[in-house]
Amino acid sequence: MMRRIKDFRATFENKREIASNVFLIEFFLPDFDGSAEPGQFMMLKASSVYDPFLRRPYSIFDCEKERIKVLLKVIGPASSIIAEKQENEKIDILGPLGNGFPILSNKHSVLVAGGIGVAPLWFLAKKLKAENQTFSIIYGEKTATDMSFEIKETFADFSHIVTEDGSKGDKATAPGILPSFFDKLGEKQYVLYVCGPKAMLKETISFGRKRNIPVYVSLEQRMACGTGICFGCSVKTARKPGYLTICKDGPVFSAEDVEI
């Protein structure tokens, strides 16, 4: 099926700071039919002038027809410009881009998210919940923010919160709690979905291999074009020599297909 990628002249609707310099932002995209999959992303143009020149990629946090939400952390000029926009300001948004998470309906899905890596997994959790699929979401932060509370409120018994300082939930890291978490779940068929810092990805992948559980990772990377033309976001393949582009071939990959 041909992807319906479009450059939208979107409207900045609202924002909410959920942690220090981390904002949940909602945009209105006229004529967008809402056909986005969890794991896909959008390319946002920070300014109408040429500085910053390149668009910035953001995972789709949520999507309902003509409205999308992204989770943005202010780390440089482009993200600062986007975060400082006001209600009804215009912004160019290209997407949806990339490939999303495969849904394995015969398995219990365990979503492992760290920090702002929760963005694509929140969208996935909402889809799994809407389709009455069995799943759990493990969310880890250094210290509790509003996101921890929102996950617990939205996904209730499906969610498990961990913080490194013990400010909410168990005092642990998200991958660090996996062995005991799975032991409590019992004997089932599982699939792991993970997004977060590289060390967290590696630890989750290692756990999945030990337990013979398939793992799908959403990779975060700097991108220039977002469509696979420039090869600026390449990742090494694991099965044979070569490279894949995170923007076009991903950002979701089987952990067995790429080198993390």
Question: What's the CATH architecture of the largest domain?
Answer: 3-Layer(aba) Sandwich
**Strand arrangement, largest sheet?**
10-9-8-7-11-12-15
- What's the number of helices? 5
Distance N to C terminus? 29 Å
What is the gyration radius calculated from CA atoms?
18 Å
Helix content: 10-25%
Amount of beta strand? 25-35%
Coarse morphology: globular
What is the CATH domain class of the largest domain? Alpha Beta
Mean pLDDT, to the nearest integer, reads 93
List the secondary-structure elements in sequence, H or E. Answer: EEEEEHEEHEHEEHEHEEEE
CATH topology heading of the largest domain: Rossmann fold
Describe this structure in words.
There is one protein chain. The protein has 260 residues and is of the alpha/beta class. The chain folds into two domains: 92 residues, Elongation Factor Tu (Ef-tu), domain 3, CATH 2.40.30; 111 residues, Rossmann fold. It has five helices and 15 strands. A seven-stranded mixed β-sheet has the order 10-9-8-7-11-12-15, with helices on both faces. It has a six-stranded antiparallel beta barrel with strand order 1-2-5-4-3-6. A two-stranded antiparallel ribbon has the order 13-14. It starts with 5 loop residues before the first strand and ends in a 6-residue tail after the last strand. The model has no long low-confidence stretch (mean pLDDT 93).
Summarize the structure.
The chain is an alpha/beta fold. 20% of the residues lie in helices and 35% in strands. It has a seven-stranded mixed beta sheet with strand order 10-9-8-7-11-12-15, with helices on both faces. Strands 1-2-5-4-3-6 form a six-stranded antiparallel barrel.
